[in-house]
Amino acid sequence: MSPGSWSWLWVWSCLLSLSVWTRALELEELFEFGEEAGDQQLQPGSDSSAGLQLNGSVLFFSDSFDKVYINTNGFVSFAEPPAEVEYLGKMPADFKMIAALLGDLDDSDGQGKVYFRQDDSPEVLSRAAEHIRQAFPRDTGVEPTSTLIVTWENMAAAGTSGRGDGLDAKRNTFQLVVASMESSSYAVLLYPRDGLQFHSTSVGGETKLLETGFNEGLVQGWFWNNQPGTYFRVTTDEETSIRDLTEKTTSGQRGVWVYEIGSAPFFVAITPGVNSDLPDEGNTTEPPATVLPRQPDEVNFTTKETQVVPEQKQEFPTESPTEYPESESMEPEVVEGPGQSGPEYPESETVTPTYTNPERAPPRYPEPSEPRYPVSEPLEPRRTIPETTQPRYSPIEPRYPDPVQPRYTNPEQVQLVPPYSRPHQPQIIIVDEDEGLNVNVYGYDVERCANNRHKCSAFADCRDYSNGYCCHCKPGFYGNGKDCVAEGKPQRMNGKVNGRVFVGNSPSPVELSNHDLHSYVVANDGRAYVAISNIPDSLGPSLQPLSSLGGVIGWAFALEQPGYQNGFSLIGGEFSRQAEVIFQPGNERLSIKQQFKGIDEHDHLVVSTELEGRLPAVLPGSSVQISPYKEIYQYDRDLITSSSNRDYTITSPGSAVQPRSYQWRQTITFKGCQHDAAIRPELATQQLSVDQIFVMFDADNHLIRYAMSNRIGSVHSALPEQNPCFTGRHGCDINAVCKPGDGLQFTCECSSGFTGDGRYCYDADECSETPQVCGANAVCSNQPGTFRCQCLSGFVFASDGKTCIEEDRPVDHCRRGSHDCDVAERAMCSYTGGSAFVCSCLPGFTGDGRVCRDVDECQQDRCHRDAACSNTLGSYACQCHPGFHGDGFQCNPTEREKTPCERHRESAQSSTSDSSFLSFFRPRPAVGQYVPQCDEHGSYQSTQCHTSIGQCWCVDASGQELPNTRTGPGNTPLCIDQAVTPPPVGPTPRPDVHPVAPGTHLLFAQSGKIEHVPLDGYNIKKEEAKPLLHIPDRVVIAVAYDCVEKMVYWTDITGPAISRARLSGGDISPVITTGLQSPEGIAIDHVARLLFWTDSMRDTVEVSQLDGSQRRVLFDTDLINPRPIVTNSAYGRLYWADWNRDGPKIEMANMDGTERVVLVKDDLGLPNGLTFDTDNQQLCWADAGTRRVECMDPHRRLRRTIVEGIQYPFALVSFGRNLYYTDWRREAVVAVDRQSQRETDEFLPQRRSRLYGITTTPTQCQQAYNYCANNGSCSHLCLPRLGGFTCRCPDDGAGGRCVESNL
């Protein structure tokens, strides 16, 4: 084929693949439904419901449900729905529901049907996962475990049957798929082309449009009152929004809409998919979504139309115009609400607010939560907080530099558009503290910028002054030059809380040890949120008044009034804070010390907190309300002080209200740049105003939560600023900065690192747009609003902080293998720092370490005089002479009792012929008589032969013949010695202590790389952890190590593929690249040179040689979710675990596929990790369902628990007396001592994300033997088994040249 033909073929292939996701959804593309699909059918009618008990759980908003109700009227609810008159036309309803297409529908004419089922088949799960991945392209590791599929087919509008106006012939067909995973659930809504033939139904005599959305129902508000929760509405009050359901998308294919509808343990908001690109048309914007949010500071709720689908275009498409007031200045319209009156300003280019409820409701604010298969940093939710007593204004048209001019009409105000990236951690994000970091780490000196530019932020310029240099943030950023953040970008703070706090009159303190603190600030409106995890019930209620514990981040990123600066603008992110709190009337005192350590690689401000003192007791179940307050900050060189009085009230469970107060004093010290007087604060005092304060102790999750709004401005009373940029009521995107204009006008501009019109801002992926942005020898990692460059292994940043140059570092000759010590069997190389090392001979050898000679201990008379000494390499053995018994060190003459073999042999030899003459001679067996052969210890030799008939066979320890081992003349079977090995002689280690060979490492997989960390004995040398291998765009799951060739093997599910590379470096070699779907487990038999793996999509256990040849399926039946797999080379055994939720099990078989048995099936949950300890013959597993690590002797079936209460283990490996497992939730490698049955160590990688497979790299292979050590003379595959081996052919048949046999 010519090059031109290839080019056209490539173009057409791209166009064809693109068309799959941009064309309309066809009816036949719905998920399979009907009786043949195993569906149940809803009873016909106009308001029928049916309950369905779920096998798993569905997460909806912040709650979990195991039962749903399917209704004729186009929805699924999580409580039994009331009569339709209670909710049709009256949304939001009081109960939780997913409205796929809500209206008064009817299927009683026999044409319409409602089908529903649960489905966890691999085909359905895979298809649901694909829709989710298309909607959230940055998410990886999407693996649904169950789906709920509901199909409404040929539904009619109620009351239209027989009318004859044509409406009775119009039918609607649509489908809802709810896909659930461990920590999140998704709704996939499917509307096929021509599937929506009517857009409204008659409700109470009025025509009402159909609705699509997600309704939270009633939630608990202030003082335990029930209030309406969020109603996330996809459609609007325009009929075009119903029609658009088949034409537009959030997942890249018309008619397919994907939303994340719930997550655990934290939930932020309903999250729409982000893939709305439809390249073949210009107008691709999703109809506005209506959100009824819950706000902590609102008296009334506001219905606003919110654009939820980001447009990833170079130009902004023109939206279908909607009817909004056109005038920029209008007379106020007075809207009377319950308990209030005042002017309400209609908004130009927005919907006039309508108030639906006069009560307060508790807030929703961002919290961290758990990640899945490798995750990206989440985008922040977009949110504004409307005020009922303040006017709302419209922004002026944004001004853009020529020649780019956006094309859009009537952009809508933004409210509560949540993030699309997955949550990030089950509790608060864990951030290691760096104890060596202090606020003076960036102290300025008299050096010049030429040598210190890298000490400035990447978003700062360095300027020289007469006495030194200073760093200044670039335009669009703010901070002290050392730390700079983008204007308008939300900020996060992570840290740890420690200390001792007494509560009330208690004589014993509550100890706090590394409790996670997480804070989040919406910078363009000054709203701050703080959460601290794992708070004991005895302390949590009493911490509620202490909102200022995290309030310093509110001051740091407070909304700035004209001419004033917040804390971060003045001093950056490195400072110390010490505060004292005195409570009244009891005079309790509490000291707070906080160390702010700057911004880490994730753009998070890092803080450590210590508490010491006493708090007044607050009764469990009490609520606390803190009054708004003002705090004066006084600024001096390198010192800031403030003080204030805080009033609060405590409402006990019995509704008793107690007023309280406390005095607050704090001192903030920092290190500023002294060389430029211009950057010092011009105003000696500023006032921080704090209001809308919300506090709560979440006893169920043991979290203390705070939220507050912060503004920094003048200490003098004056008319408050009305421009929305200074009130925070501007409607700009959460990742945008508000730019004030004249009067009440303003513009919204996306923060640096984001693109959009300011109303909607999307993260710019600098790594994709500018692939060489990090230069050579570096890896680019995109993050919200920015990117990070990381030098490859062996490279470091140059003095400019940007260029990666080869690292000039000492050489560890021991690790590299370039030392001149004797071989590892006789000597040990020990690294001593720099490029130095020392050689030393191992015990049993003598010499200088470079040349080691065996010590002949037999020359030293160590054995008993009646024993024989046998020298061995590095050791020796003593054995008593015949006629003596003992251990060789002590021998006593005795006539030991004959063994069964010796008695059997004597009996056979006594069977003489009938000749009495022959009886005088030594007994001999009769001709043809079998005489057993015994070894020197009197045990049956494993191979027995009968010379008279020319046959040999294998026997067990009792002399019984093993089936299928008998051979004919001239052949001898290969038999494993079944006899008990006699006790060792000579000096040996204690049986419960296993010496650890030097140079052993842990290898573990972390998304697109494999890292290694050395072991010092059993201790993890955390400071020496380094990446072993970078594999961009790959998700590595399982790892294994071949100790013979020192080769690392791994599986990845993105290829999918199995690959390998040498531990010493070199290119990656593919092993298996075809016929895989989801390889999740891998194991190596280093003796037989075999590779085993599991595939959880193909549901197989397979084997091949180490180079991937001679591939054969061992098992493909009775498997659901096989994952971990391990080998026992000496016994020819194979073990694997299947985490099938309906029947988890651990199985065992010979490596040739015979003797398959279930070892464990009771009391299992999710057996993710599996390892085999050959020293102790123990099979151990880590179970994420039971949260235990257990071990079993597979021979005797003795089972014991090692540790309990772990979090979410994934993989497990045994080394000596320790077990090491990776944990998804802790994002750590955890060490467990099997003898003490407790966790002893934890390693947290520098870059935090889920960890997957783990293995060890011993410097020497463990001694083992099986019959396939040299391929057992097989023509192709030699597969060991207990007591023999089997020659097998690969599945491809090997061209008919393969011979199979059992030996």
TrEMBL record:
Q: Could you tell me which residue ranges the Nidogen G2 beta-barrel domain spans?
A: 489-722
The LDL-receptor class B repeats lie at 1046-1088, 1089-1131, 1132-1176
Q: List the disulfide bonds.
A: 945-952, 1289-1298
The record's subcellular location field reads:
Secreted, Extracellular space, Extracellular matrix, Basement membrane
Q: In this protein, which residues make up the domain named EGF-like?
A: 445-485, 721-762, 763-805, 810-853, 854-890, 1257-1299
Instruction: List the GO terms this entry assigns under cellular component, sorted alphabetically.
Output: basement membrane; plasma membrane
| UniProt xrefs under InterPro entries | 6-blade_b-propeller_TolB-like, cEGF, Cueball_EGF_LRP_Nidogen, EGF, EGF-like_Ca-bd_dom, EGF-type_Asp/Asn_hydroxyl_site, EGF_Ca-bd_CS, G2_nidogen/fibulin_G2F
Report biased composition (Low complexity) as residue ranges. 315-324
Please list which residues make up the signal peptide: 1-24
The residues covered by the Thyroglobulin type-1 domain are: 898-975
Region Disordered: which residues? Answer: 277-407
Q: What is this protein called?
A: Nidogen 1
Name the encoding gene, please: NID1
